[in-house]
Amino acid sequence: MQYITQLSDFTYQGPCAVTLGKFDGMHRGHQRLIRTIRKYSDENTKSVVFAFDMKQFLLNKGITRKMLMTNEERKKHMEKYVDYLIECPFTEEFRKIEPEDFIKDILVDKLHAKYIVIGADYHFGRDKRGDANTLSRYAKKYGYHVDVITKKKSDDRIISSSYIRETLAGGDLELANELLGYPYTVYGRVEHGQKLGRTLGFPTMNIVPDIEKLLPKKGVYNCKVKIDGVWYKGIGNVGMKPTVTNDGRVLVEVHVLDYDAEAYEKEIEIKFLTFERGEKKFSSVEELKEQVDKDIASGKLYFEKA
Ligand SMILES: Cc1cc2nc3c(=O)[nH]c(=O)nc-3n(C[C@H](O)[C@H](O)[C@H](O)COP(=O)(O)O)c2cc1C
Ligand SMILES: Nc1ncnc2c1ncn2[C@@H]1O[C@H](COP(=O)(O)OP(=O)(O)OP(=O)(O)O)[C@@H](O)[C@H]1O
Q1: How far apart are the C-alpha atoms of 1 and 174, rounded to whole Å?
Q2: Residue nearest atom 7 in ligand 2 by C-alpha distance
């Protein structure tokens, strides 16, 4: 896959099957679109995800938003699915572009779109005036085919990145995973903690996730952890460790079963499988240890049954 952050770097001259949107999380609705562009792609026709990066645009309006996926994570996630991932910063210029100009200048002239795939409610161009009808109206003139994909629902509610962000933040990890179609994942480099876990009998790998990454609600989770390409079982905690620290930093840490080598500086991947309990401030380290021992025992039982 080629990862492109400047439209001018896109130089492929052959036909493309293009899908459009923001694509935070690559949830089950997004996956419908990806499957459709893949269906059209072959040796000659390339599959292209054209994703608008809203970060700077929102920041300019004073809005900061935690994301289901950092750009780096989305890149890793998409690697084996499509030929090109274009991450295009959304700017005032884009906001003002006439829908037909967007179609002609970007989709047709720049990306050589022969197939355009969007969700049923997708809007683009000046005042969001462009939509599926606009794309269909110009299809003949510019020589492309449009696929408008029905919005995928779960229990009668349309799946969207906003819905999943809301679900995760509210603590329903299992529903978030169901909407995503895969377990929610956090990546990070293992950092040095206070090294207290080791003396308490449960060494943990500490990671400080990207500032823009949306973390699951604070608490204890059964997880899968990938270290050096190998998957392990783990019991993780998302939170501030209020029993032992008061620096206010929210971290992710995980006690990995059947792993006893050093992992500092390694890049690990943590998949969150089940939410077990909320994080608590204990009145002593002994009480904390007692509870974490229980969490680990119950995690082991979970993995035996899984
Ligand atoms: C499964 C698990 C559950 C945890 N639950 C809590 C908790 O409820 N409250 C808390 O203050 N810390 C909790 N922790 C964090 C511990 O306080 C922390 O792992 C320990 O102090 C070691 O920290 P260190 O890695 O910086 O040495 C938990 C850790 C794990 C692995
Ligand atoms: N549930 C869905 N089913 C099918 N297509 C979808 C679904 N959700 C979004 N899409 C389509 O996928 C593309 C990317 O969607 P986009 O990420 O912009 O929207 P979203 O997932 O609804 O996120 P947000 O909640 O942030 O608006 C768009 O073409 C959109 O219409």
Answers
A1: 30
A2: 29
Whether residue 21 is predicted with pLDDT greater than 90 in this model: the reply is yes
Question: Closest ligand to 283 CA?
Answer: 1
Which residue is closest in CA terms to ligand 1's atom 16? 241
This complex has an ipTM of 0.91
* Domains along the chain with CATH numbers: 2-158 (3.40.50.620), 183-305 (2.40.30.30)
pLDDT grade for 281, boundaries at 50, 70 and 90? very high
Determine if the pTM surpasses 0.90. yes
Q: What are phi and psi of 46, to 5 degrees?
A: -95, 145
* Helices and strands (DSSP H and E) totals, the chain: 11, 14
Q: Summarize pLDDT for 154-178 with one digit per residue, the tens.
A: 999 999 999 999 999 999 999 999 9
Contact (CB, 8 A) for 173 and 238: no
CB of 160 within 6 A of ligand 1: the answer is no
Closest residue by Cα to atom 19, ligand 1, is 197
For 139, residues 6+ apart whose C-beta sits below 8 A from its C-beta are: 145, 146
pLDDT for position 30: 98
CA distance 268 to 265: 9
pLDDT reading at 198 higher than 80:
no
In this structure, which ligand is nearest to the CA of 146? 2
